[in-house]
Amino acid sequence: MFNKILIANRGEIACRVIKSARAMGIKTVAVYSDADRNALHVAMADEAVHIGPAPAAESYIVIDKVMDAIRQTGAEAVHPGYGFLSENPKFAEALEAEGVAFIGPPKGAIEAMGDKITSKKIAKEAEVNTVPGVMGLIEDAEEAIRISQEIGYPVMLKASAGGGGKGMRIAWNDEEAREGFQSSKNEAAASFGDDRIFIEKFVTQPRHIEIQVLCDQHGNGVYLGERECSIQRRNQKVIEEAPSPFLDEATRKRMGEQALALAHAVGYSSAGTVEFIVDGDKNFYFLEMNTRLQVEHPVTELITGVDLVEQMIRVAAGEKLGLAQSDITLNGWAMESRLYAEDPYRNFLPSIGRLTRYRPPQELAVEGAVVRNDTGVYEGGEISMYYDPMIAKLCTWGHTRAEAIEGMRNALDAFEIEGIGHNLPFLSAVMDHPRFVSGEITTAFIAEEYPDGFSGVALPEDILRRIAASCAAMHRVAEIRRSRISGRMDNHERHVGENWVVSLQGHRFAVTIDADRDGSTVTFADGDIMRVASDWTPGDQLAELEVEGSPLVLKVGKISGGFRIRNRGADLKVHVRTPRQADLAALMPEKLPPDTSKMLLCPMPGMIVKIDVSEGDEVQEGQPLCTVEAMKMENILRAERRAKVSKINAGPGDSLAVDDVIMEFE
Question: Max alpha carbon distance in the chain (Å)?
């Protein structure tokens, strides 16, 4: 077994690998860029080596710099994590030449499966079901249109060397094929240094289901069940679960056997994932094989009990698998929510900045429940513009899917993140969505259920009543505390009023509070009574309460005359007033936001790649205005209505902040 391994990665996956290596008694080496000097993975590793400036192209994906770090530290093996150099055959070749073990598959398997065109040919030869399409490389946009017409719309344009949703576009007509071809080429060149594009049929009503395989260097292999990854946005997975609520045992077995057949066909060893697209009749088609550890691997670990990182290390050291297919059993259900630094209220555009507050829920592993949080950040750390915007991967496990979902709801409610935009409210909303709860999902779920983007959650009245009762009780505690601090209380506790009006989400609840040492009894005007108990004290940003014996977790902020409350994806202003104050507040005019309808605002921190119009141009609804690049993704900003461009304030190469004015209209 190795004595020391180097992790050629950063963030949560580097931290994840360090944990398994440490448990195996193996020393670890971290590498870091200028931006990651104070990163968590650097602090966790036994050694750390600086490898260059912040951009990944000048540090993490420069093979020579990683090789220098290996030589400096005497590392015997390298785990590449995912992304960066994890599927780069030249890196595997460089390690082999140096006599350093690659904790991943053989170079030949990476090359064969890394090219989507080659991989589909091999899959076909191995009798693996494949999606109809044209595997030849596409030379230009006109050829892309011709081929798309032959296959039949809709089609998917994909970067041959792609991954992570980059370099992928769906086209429903000729114009989208032309535009998507160029955007895919640009993204592919920027992300992978390879702008080759191919086209395949886009399967409607699809599910994205993948099979985890694990093979050794001695011809042994197993599959470890499937993961359902259909909740996606821009082809980027957001929520994963294992097993799938859709598959039956027979389909699972067929998919697993085909995945292993493909792995054996390319002489695969290590952990790998074979991705399939599955239609409503359980027909499945090969998409690609990821020759690395997958981002969503924790859910497989939770239902199988197999540490995939440990197995990868053992395989790389030449050990035989200690598992046979008969040893693999699927126990319970696991959920994973990817917490991204993306603002759901701005169409999920990237957000960067400092984490002024980062308090994940407590990890636990008890009978019937698991909470796991894989992360690479900490409170006070920076979310950089240079790397993937993932903050953490929050996972829960339960005996059933319903238990895993409920565990995730509670864990998300307790997760405190401040300082940046993040998708936590959206994740909470999905966990409560009837269609998700039923398991009737496809890869179009987000597009279909949130066609106009995410604007928050309107909570049902029964939940609002629970929150109103809680806020009334909390307000009473705050009033008592305020009186004590002001010095207005003598030896006898000053009487604090019992009658209050709680206003939230367009509702007004008149309540009466009867408090005692153990909590408060809140009576609504219609006679409804709720008992509220909590040890919350003013200033606490997380309130863990019991309302009528059921738990309720609220994130709490202070606003004038009440609280900012966040729960289950809703962001509420809750005002608690005396009846007289409530009557007066009802007479106050509503403050309207400024009119920005004649401006194109930059929706994210990013760089202008291209301006498509000139001052004086008439533009039509849907017409491209400019392209903004952020975190390696190109975002085309379009006209919302017919207008005339009166002023352009930015040009290609300009770096802009959120809400900077790009152009103005008459």
Answer: 87
Does 607 lie in the same domain as 633? Answer: yes
Q: Which of 111, 200, 288, 342 is catalytic?
A: 288
Q: What is the model's pTM?
A: 0.83
For the chain, how many structural domains are there in total? 6
Same domain, 608 and 516: no
CATH of the domain at 316: 3.30.470.20
Long-range contacts of 116-125 (CB under 8 A, 24+ apart): 116/158, 116/159, 116/160, 116/161, 116/162, 116/198, 116/288, 117/160, 117/198, 119/288, 119/289, 120/286, 122/262, 122/265, 122/266, 123/262, 123/286, 125/265
Residues in the chain: 666
Q: Which residues constitute the domain of residue 78?
A: 4-103
Query: How many angstroms separate the CA atoms of 401 and 498, rounded?
Result: 43
Strands 507-516 and 499-504: antiparallel
* 651 and 508 part of one domain: no
CA–CA gap between residue 494 and residue 537 (Å, rounded): 18
For residues 64 and 429, give the distance between their C-alpha atoms in angstroms, rounded to a whole number. Answer: 45
Counting as low any pLDDT under 50, the low residues of the chain are: 489-493
Query: Rounded to the nearest 10 degrees, how much is the dihedral formed by the CA atoms of 242, 244, 245, 248?
Result: -130
Going by C-beta distance under 8 Å and a sequence separation of 6 or more, which residues neighbour residue 239? 231, 335, 336, 337, 338, 427, 430, 436
Does the active-site annotation cover 666?
A: no
**What is the CATH classification number for the domain harbouring 54?**
3.40.50.20
Burial status of residue 24 (CB atoms within 10 A of its CB: 0-12, 13-18, 19 or more)? middle
Residues 6+ apart with CB under 8 A from 185: 159, 167, 195, 197
pLDDT, residue 488, reads: 52
Residues 337 and 381 placed together within one structural domain of the fold: yes
- pLDDT at residue 385, as a whole number: 83
What are the residues facing 73 on neighbouring strands?
Answer: none
